[in-house]
């Protein structure tokens, strides 16, 4: 077991850091010197060292720890919390694809991830039978080419930045060959949990594509931003990437006005604009993170009073079958 004070991991490649991620709750508790119930979930613990290094030792209520620590409450059967809260499996016309909204096509590019967030809305997702094969990618490209209404392709997962850069460059090249495609969007947590992923090979293909590349990060708390994350964000910006952030509103983690305003300011300081603040998707195993919608609206109303408009994220809920995400802030407070 590596002690938390050992910083040898800082010189490792992102692949090595992924391989050495902590997967044993007992090891995690020992490293962090915390006394917590040990719970082993079917959705396993996965925490890489760069993220682990930002968690306060000795604090069982650290907001970063609570996002990754399996807890016995996950085993509770709570009515209304289900395996597929967004009904994504019903919106898949071809393998690997989820098509919800006009003009955009989302590809679940991989089931692999760099960290297992306990509130993940795809924690029960059947990745093994869903992520695209090489043949499926040919079908995806053909589908995009045949539909001139599709101007943006979104790579999701899992985490699409766990594909290697040869694969990502090839996807970008094939999409760039389709005249009506203008934008490639990547939804990723990897620049946050393993910022070493933003390396020369990644920046090279991003800099060369004609597509506008949008990277949507996932940061819930300002404590997740350290100098390495800031450097990764600035490298992406220098390569021409538009950087946005989406957060999830989580009970006991970021459900305070000061935490939300601090996050928006910290994001802006590294060149990232707040994009969405999602209320929790009702996924089985995550009910203890949920907040009443009225509480979410009141929080945002207070945030609006403290920040300029460009730093206020959209408070949103995704409702299956709707033509867009539902903006909760436009509805009257209850």
Give a description of the structure.
Strand 7 (273-278), helix 11 and strand 8 (314-317) form a beta-alpha-beta unit. It contains 11 helices and 9 strands. It folds into 2 domains: 8-73, no CATH class; 88-330, Aldolase class I (TIM Barrel). It has helices at 14-19, 25-32, 49-52, 65-68, 134-146, 165-176, 190-193, 200-208, 227-238, 257-269, 293-306; strands at residues 97-98, 104-108, 152-156, 183-187, 212-218, 242-248, 273-278, 314-317, 326-327. The longest helix has 14 residues, at 293-306. The protein has a 9-stranded mixed beta sheet with strand order 1-2-3-4-5-6-7-8-9. The termini are far apart.
Biggest β-sheet, characterized?
A: 9 strands, mixed
Straight-line N-to-C gap: 51 Å
Kindly identify the CATH topology of the largest domain.
TIM Barrel
Q: What is the count of DSSP helices, taking H or I runs of 4+ residues?
A: 11
CATH homologous superfamily name of the largest domain? Aldolase class I
CATH C-level class of the largest domain is Alpha Beta
